[in-house]
Amino acid sequence: MENRLTSDHRTDAQVGRAQSSGLRVLLPTVLPAMLVVLGLVLPLFMFEGDQHPSKIGLGPGAWPDAILKGMSFFAALWLAREIWVLGRAGRTTTLSPPDDDLSYSYAKAIGGLVMIVAYGWLLPLTGFALTTAAFIALWCVFGGVRKPLVVIPVSLLGTYALLWVFMGLALMPLSRGVGVFNSFSIALLQLLGIY
Amino acid sequence: MIRKSNTRMALGLSLVAGTLAFATVAPAQDYPNRPIELIVTFGPGGGADLMGRQMARFLEAPLGVPVPVSNVAGASGNAGLTALRTNAADGYTMGTLISLTVASWAAGLGDNEPEDFRVIAVAQSSPSFLFVSSNSPYKTAEELFAYAREHPSEITVATSGYGTQDDVTLKILSDAGVALANVPLQAPAERYASAIGGHTSAIYEEPGDVAQFVEAGQLIPVVVFDTERHPEFPDVPTSAELGIDISGLDNFRSIAVSADVPDEIVAKLQSAILDVAASDEWHAFCKKTYTCIEPVTGEAAQAMVRDFKDVIAAKLGS
Amino acid sequence: MSTIHLLAGGFQAAFQFWPFLTIVTGLLVGVVAGAIPGISFVNAMAMALPFTYVMEPTQSMLFLGGIYVGGVFGGSISAIMINVPGTPASLPATWEGYPMTRQGNVKRALAIAVTASATGGLVSALVLAFLSAPFATFALRFSQPEFFAATLLGLVSVIAIAKDQPLVTMVSLLLGIAVGTVGVDPLYGQARFTFGVPEMESGVRFVVVMIGLFAIGEVVDLLATNRDLRPKKIDGKGLGVSFRDILNVKGAILRGTGLGCMIGVIPGAGATPGAVIAYGVEKQVSKRGKEFGTGVDEGLAAPEAAKNATTGAAMVPLLTLGIPGSAATAIMLAAMMLHGVNPGPLLFIMDPSMVYTIFAAMIIANLLMIVAGIGVAQVFSTLMRTPPAILAAFIVVLSVVGAYGVRNNVFDVYVCLAFGVLGWGMKRIGFPTAPMVLGVILGPLAERYFLTSLANAHQDWTVFFVRPISATILFLALVFVCWSLWPALKPIARRLLGRKERFNV
């Protein structure tokens, strides 16, 4: 931590970071340590059930095994370097996170991630048309575009354009949803002249 | 402001409700009244893709609706079949089911079973051959096999992988004393290039996939793995003639639906596919790819898939 | 008839009304599809395939060829403008082009990119037209060990181009290669790392990973920082670049073109390794190598030239041998076969006019690309004026559609979103994502080529070193590693040699 503060260009953001949680201090050592373990443990979970590969050559496990061991090796070197620089002035840690902590809104970022994941998760259940229209509208509102006269046309026309291009023109089988949503999507697509 | 957007919301909701009223479940006699998706279980450009796309193209006339093709590649065709199995069993999703995928089941891949699918028709099938390059020192199977008997595993054969019908064929040959080294090249393009470029001594393939190289004289067929000689290659001996009986490992390609699709819909699809298979365009296409067969339907088709899996499983297990 | 005559005939045929319109349409479709984050040109070509049913065989090739040429460039438009590569081959454009945009030089970046791309594509199209036969013979001499060596060179250049610590880069790269091993292995047909989930057998496609890591991560940052996409002050009037500027980077363009032409014939490799290796080489060769990553003209021009130079080179094995080396050329093969045309040596004899019309079309498409590229970029910069929130919403939707469209598989959407979350986290802690993507792209190729090389050589490990071409490329890779690591090793070496006076750098 102190090594950052000794650097020449000491900015408010860096001071802010130095005062932030202890996670920042632990992360540089915890992450490579976790990766070392990951690389050693993952090969044990490579195969499932009763597979019986041909007994010719190196087999299907050799390459991933070597790669993961290699990753462990380099992660171990990285860990060694982190420990080496710990508490030494004038040296930087191995990772270089972006310097925008003060202007970066983590609440908004996490909100956005949750919305994106929810969108992908709902897509096969409620169908592309409905989910997309809802997502675009919600995202606009969350992102600061709040005028209904903008949000509603953008979400509806945008969804229609996407439906027309991908399902109508490119004939992609985008999700119609399940159950009642499936029936709704079919009716909608027939109404729009895509089916 | 708030009231305004509430009004809009109500408007939108009534629109949704209106559309929902349209959405009535269509009875089977109306089938088909919207596009039928054909899932090709491999990427664009391969044998399954060509078969699927030609079939889709010609099916649009007898069925009267568009038949869009979507490639769902992955896990030796199992990704596409999983999509076929899990989509609504309303007859609006068909898929390609080919021998390579059935062989992968025998090797323990995927969670699909022959019982999960209703094979509407096996539309194409072809026995496989061994081909050698035109500048190979062995121009006949006798020469090739004789050399392999004396120098086990020295002759390399490009195949589509371990645990496939290619591998099984080589295993049977090896049991009969003709040991050939299996070089598994998954990408068809690499397989062809390795044989033409002389990087492998031979290639195991069905003739349709390498037709252009055979016609150009770059590849020479030396043996066919079938009970009788191929009508298009009357000079090429069968492996049985050379004392090693290998058959029942033909590459077949079929159109299948989920096992839960109602009988009357299957009947409609079957008659449409048989119409296509009887057409001149389809014959021209099959002839070019050396895959013409009398379409196999019903229980016979189902049995073909089951038996193929059992044959491969028995051979891989040993 | 000589090549010149045949090619003249090809131009005559291509300049007819409908063929020409087909090329232009294909080119525009390609540039637009490539530029849309999430939709790659391979996607676009597969979607366009049904439209070619109604066309003449030659026309269908002109259409797909146009999409191919345009799409390989198009990916750089979004890479330069919003830091989201439209296709994996445009990754280097995010490293060098986007910084230029941040400095307000977006027009300049686009002009250099499109000129370099067009030049690379044009040269490779000429190679295709005049040297296809010797090139094809050359390509056939390559086999699995050479492919492995070249892939390894691609992996090695990742270390050379990294701005981060080599250790972290290595970990990220190996992590990416490990991700690439998920699913059915290429030789034995065995499922790996599925953890009991059957969908995992399909494996992880690199396009899906790329969309997740770059598009989703960027969109979330857009939301969290309220960053405005509108370029602050667009550089000057006109194109933002002078003829002299282009002349100044001619060395970079030529080196990129040469590398692209060579790498393009390697099956499965295609544009991405071409661009990455060209960037790595340029970083070592260029006088401004140390400034790379801050918006250097050479660093943008070389990979741009290389990736489009792979287009003509990838067509060589397809047209001369009938062997498609990449996903894009496999789709072209499908289009020809669906018309009952078998590409290969016989096509040159039976229907040379078709082959030479395709050659002519590739040349025309690359020339037109300068206009099309700038035009589409204009439209995109107009789109940038819409509020960032609306733009971001559509980028998310298109990313999800794009991830789904790779294989029409819902599971790929989940994978994409998982990598979106992971990528965002990696970015926040400063763990580099680019090596990981390249690992996912090149790792599976390296594994396959490595194991099949051994299978073809009766498991003899020396195969990589006794074949001259393979040995040469491996030696180059070694030189490359030493060369790029030298600045880091120099202080240590000096210290070991006892010369401490200039150590404190």
Description:
The complex is a heterotrimer of chains A (195), B (318) and C (505). Chain A has 195 residues and is mainly α. Chain A has two domains: 2-85, no CATH class; 106-191, no CATH class. Chain A is 65% helix and 0% strand. Chain A has eight helices and no strands. In chain A, α3 (23-41) packs antiparallel against α4 and α5 (106-126) runs antiparallel to α6 (128-142). Chain B has 318 residues and is an alpha/beta fold. Chain B folds into two domains: 35-125 and 250-317, D-Maltodextrin-Binding Protein, domain 2; 129-242, Periplasmic binding protein-like II (D-Maltodextrin-Binding Protein, domain 2, 3-Layer(aba) Sandwich), CATH 3.40.190.10. Chain B has eleven helices and eleven strands. Chain B has helices at 2-22, 47-63, 78-86, 99-106, 141-150, 165-175, 188-196, 211-215, 263-277, 280-288, 298-317, and strands at 37-40, 69-71, 93-98, 117-126, 129-133, 156-159, 181-184, 202-205, 219-224, 251-258, 292-297. In chain B, the strands form two sheets. Chain B has a six-stranded mixed β-sheet. In chain B, strands 7-6-8-5-9 form a five-stranded mixed β-sheet, with helices on both faces. In chain B, α6 (165-175) links the parallel β6 and β7 (181-184). In chain B, α2 (47-63) crosses α9 (263-277) and α4 (99-106) packs across α11. The longest helix of chain B has 21 residues, at 2-22. The radius of gyration of chain B is 23 Å and the shape is elongated. Chain C is globular. Mean pLDDT of chain C is 86; it is low at 500-505. The termini of chain C are far apart. Chain C contains 21 helices and two strands. Classes of the chains: A mainly alpha (195), B alpha/beta (318), C mainly alpha (505). Chains A and C meet through α3, α4, α5, α6 and α7 of A and α8, β2, α9, α17 and α18 of C.
